[in-house]
Amino acid sequence: MSREKITNNELLTRIDERLNYLRVVDISEIKKHLETLNNNVAKNTARSSANASQVKALWLVIIAHLALLGTIIGLLIHYQG
Predict the structure, then answer these.
(1) What is the DSSP letter of 39?
(2) Transmembrane residues, as ranges (predicted)?
(3) To the nearest whole percent, how much of the chain has pLDDT over 90?
(4) What is d(CA 47, CA 38) in angstroms, rounded to the nearest whole number?
(5) Contacts (Cβ under 8 Å, ≥6 apart) of 6
């Protein structure tokens, strides 16, 4: 892969163009976007944690209902027999 040969003036021109581009980009806009992303990540993490808690609670309710159902079936069998 050969590198193109450029003069110092061309190099300075390219650097100047890139610096001009960077001057156009507003740092406060970038900061605002990063803060928004950070807030979204925090919200999603909290939501995920809440969902995990709800799933655990749901499993506990299901297990309790199955235990109650087993008890009722056991009592029915005991008193029917």
Answers:
(1) H
(2) 57-79
(3) 27
(4) 14
(5) 14
Any idea which residue has 């110092």 for tokens? Answer: 8
Distance CA 1, CA 35 (A): 41
1 inside domain: no
Q: For residues 78 and 27, give the distance between their C-alpha atoms in angstroms, rounded to a whole number.
A: 76
Model pLDDT, residue 63: 96
Domain residues for the domain of 58 are 8-80
Residue 52 in any domain: the answer is yes
What is the token pair recorded at 22?
């960077």
User: What domain count does the chain have?
Assistant: 1
Given phi > 0 = left and psi -120 to 50 = alpha, else beta, which region is 7? beta
